[in-house]
Design a protein that fits this description.
2 domains; 7 helices; elongated; Four Helix Bundle (Hemerythrin (Met), subunit A); mainly alpha
């Protein structure tokens, strides 16, 4: 295997351009789904756009991951390159933290400031801002225009499906940690078992959340059109679900690499990066469970 002790400069790559196109298409599809869904319009075209963007992103991830893996296996990466990957992953996770901070901030502002003001509390509040008998309580189930924004009949019970998903994700954080320690001790059979268990827990989580969404739409009338409560609920839980799917893809790639004999106890940052991301996803869910479902 060739070695390179200097900083490796990759060749020109098409993957950043493809990633830009895929990401823009996917986000446009997501935005269209939310806008059309909230207005009661058809979302079929938006879903097609989202699907096309998702396929482009999948192609990009498969190709870009393959290029990086090939370069790493060829011995082109130096310790400096390893540090660059670590810093890059750290900043990526920080950007994701700020991404969710914006949505948690919107939820906090609506609950702590906007709704009480509309109910007449504080210097900016006025008892005449909405209508007689308006109750400024969270979750906001009495919307200003029930015909345009029908309120949900009730909220999701946090101690059933959300609790199950919390147990699943907390357990998956434990299993991926066990797999990481097994890799450090070169116990590859144990790595495969515990990493596969992590992926299985992740897939069950996605299935449970999909069923929860079905229950919300079909039986609780909790939709994107359900006012501020519905929009914040689906924005936070929906984007988190998308991150779970991405994290599951990353872990699956790590399992395939383990089965192919990749990684050593000393060099396995690809596995570490995936586990970092998975722990981040778990922590975000704990915040969601407390602030979206319980409180």
């Amino acid at each position: 295997m060739a070695t390179n002790q200097t900083y490796y400069v990759p060749e020109q790559s098409k993957w950043p351009i493809i990633a830009t196109v895929g990401l823009a298409t996917t986000l446009y599809g997501v935005a269209s789904i939310m806008v059309n869904g909230s207005q009661g319009e058809s979302t079929s075209g938006a879903w097609i756009t989202f699907g096309i963007g998702s396929l482009i992103m999948a192609y990009m991830l498969f190709g870009w991951f393959g290029t990086v893996i090939s370069e790493s296996r060829s011995g082109l990466y130096s310790p400096q390159m390893d540090r660059s990957f670590r810093w890059g992953m750290s900043w990526f996770i920080f950007s994701e933290v700020m991404f969710f901070a914006a949505f948690f901030g919107a939820l906090f502002y609506a609950r702590v400031f906007a709704v009480p003001w509309l109910g007449g509390e504080g210097d900016r509040g006025s008892s005449n801002m909405l209508w007689e008998g308006f109750q400024a309580t969270w979750p906001l189930l009495n919307n200003p225009d029930p015909e345009a924004f029908p309120a949900p009949e009730k909220i999701i019970d946090p101690w059933h499906l959300p609790l199950i998903n919390t147990i699943l994700l907390v357990s998956s954080s434990f299993t991926v940690t066990v797999a990481h320690h097994a890799l450090k001790h070169e116990n590859r059979a144990k790595v495969k078992i515990w990493l596969a268990a992590t992926i299985a827990l992740a897939l069950i989580f996605v299935a449970v959340q999909a069923y929860e969404y079905f229950e919300a739409y079909a039986h609780l009338n909790l939709t994107l059109r359900s006012g501020i409560y519905g929009s914040t609920f689906f924005m936070l839980t929906g984007f988190h679900g998308a991150h779970v799917i991405l994290g599951t893809l990353m872990l699956t790639i790590m399992l395939i690499r383990i089965m192919k004999g990749h990684f050593t106890p000393e060099q396995h940052f690809g596995f570490e990066a995936a586990s970092w991301y998975w722990h981040f996803v778990d922590v975000v869910w704990l915040g969601l469970f407390v602030f979206v479902y319980v409180l």
